[in-house]
Amino acid sequence: MSIQQKARSRCHWLPTLDKSQDTLYLTLADQLAADIAAGKMSPGDKLPPQRLLADALGITLGTVTRAYREAERRGLTEARVGSGTRVRGTQADEPVFHHLSRASAGSIDLSLSIPIPNPIRAEQLAFCLQQIANQPDITRQALAYQPEQGNLIQRETLAEWMTRHQLPVDASELLITEGGQHADYLAMQALIRPGEAVASAALTYPGMIAIARQLGLKHIPVPTDHQGIRPDALERLCQQQKIRLLYVMPEYNNPTGEHMSQARREAIVEIARRHDLLLLEDGIQYVIPSHRGTPFYRLAPERSLYIFSVSKIIEGGLRFGALRAPSNLIPRLSAALRAQCWSVPGLMGTIACQWLSSGNADTLIDWQWTEVSHRQALVKQALSHYETEAHAYGFHAWLKLPEPWRAVDFVAEAARRGVTLIASDPFCVGSHPAPQAVRICVTPPAETAIFETGIQRLATLLQEGPSHAAPLV
38-48 burial, b if ≥16 CB within 10 A, otherwise e? Predict the structure, then answer.
């Protein structure tokens, strides 16, 4: 039996190809899409290993590799190191990330990066609404259609507040958005074409991963170290292929907690200028100014965009944020926003700006920083014998599990003990292997005592180790 015959006998999916086609890899991806639509391949079905399929079809390994990449770009498949490539199907998948709690009743939720619940938020909101109601002119402006770039008064209020908190911007640089996720999506939709490549840390914010997939972008993972994205790895990737945009979280990466030094930021800017990269900085993980580095838009204003939102400092349901961008990009971003939703709701921005300008937000933020810092200290103390990474004022900690723990087992066992966590899988870009680690969010519990109970349960679980299954025979 020939090599091709042996390979064909082992392949459960064998498309029929016209080898005269110039773009054979596209033909192969098209055939996979057709077989999925016809029900010949179902969600969860595993595709043959690339080399095996190449031998079976009598084509090059490179052709199959390109076809598999194209299928993943289209959302037909999903690749994972160690488990191969599987069909995602044509139906909408369960989201790999979520913004609402999935903790069962009575469980201590340490899974979501949200502001610490506090009754003072409702009190401050009531005050803001009363202030707005007492000013008819402001109410009328809030209820009217807004300019695409956002209400000028709101942009000026936000620019003044950001500048006072050591994030100097001008109102003309800002475009008002419906929160940080909207700003992220808007930037990539307006500035990057389908099929072009964007890059980020290999472990990054799941919302960015979802956006790149939704827009049909090629998402490249960049290796990291304790300071985040490695310049040498980024340089190597830029030499190999054209990357249009680099997504960064320099203050502390979500989920790994890595913080970029000033030297690291400057090295990345140098690479961005050499290879004409746009820099999209996610500033949603807002931290105290004394623990914050120089934002990229101050180092490279001509190519840097900065995302700001009140989601972590006031409340997530107040969908208000801004995208700082170079002046030459504002028209393209404004046009994209106009096509999406005409404009951001004026009332939402009026409430947020009233909250910021009243000084109440500063009081709330100062309390939250103090509480977050205290909770991070509790994590450090309780898990001192284990490898963790966290920012002193960050909303989460990254726990690298000791052997022989696996992340999926740790999350499951923690849930049985009444603690809800998220493992590493949703944060992995493309086929980057998921490390045996979990993200621990310090902010969801309203009471510090409840949070401390959750951390102590995790410490006990780590000390006991995983249950030993019966040996395989």
Answer: eeebeeebebb
Q: Residue 293's closest CA among 309, 310, 281? A: 281
What letter represents residue 124's amino acid? Q
Dist. CA 425–CA 414, nearest whole Å: 17
Neighbour tally for 230: CB within 10 Å: 17
Non-local (6+) Cβ contacts of 173 within 8 A are: 159, 324, 325, 326, 327, 330
Q: Are 142 and 347 in contact (CB under 8 A)?
A: yes
Q: 375 with 451: CB under 8 angstroms?
A: yes
pLDDT tens for the chain, residues 1 to 473: 788 888 888 888 888 887 776 688 888 888 888 888 888 888 888 899 999 998 988 899 988 888 888 888 787 888 765 668 888 754 444 455 677 888 888 899 999 999 999 999 999 999 999 999 999 999 999 999 999 999 999 999 999 999 999 999 999 999 999 999 999 999 999 999 988 999 999 999 999 999 998 898 999 999 999 999 999 999 999 999 999 999 999 999 999 999 999 999 999 999 999 999 999 999 998 888 999 999 999 999 999 999 999 999 999 999 999 999 999 999 999 999 999 999 999 999 999 999 999 999 999 999 999 999 999 999 999 999 999 999 999 999 999 999 999 999 999 999 999 999 999 999 999 878 889 999 999 999 999 999 999 999 999 999 999 975 334 33
What distance in Å separates the CA atoms of residue 315 and residue 310, rounded to the nearest whole number? 7
Q: Which helix (H) or strand (E) segment is 451 a member of?
A: helix 448-464
Dist CA 169 CA 161 (whole Å): 9
Angle at which helix 360-382 crosses helix 346-358, to 10 degrees, equals 80
153 phi and psi angles, rounded to 5 deg: -60, -40
**Cβ contacts of residue 416 below 8 Å, gap of 6+?**
none
Rounded to 10 degrees, the C-alpha dihedral 33/38/43/49 comes to: -60
**Torsion angle of alpha carbons 210, 215, 216, 221, nearest 10°?**
-50
Q: What is d(CA 102, CA 436) in angstroms, rounded to the nearest whole number?
A: 21
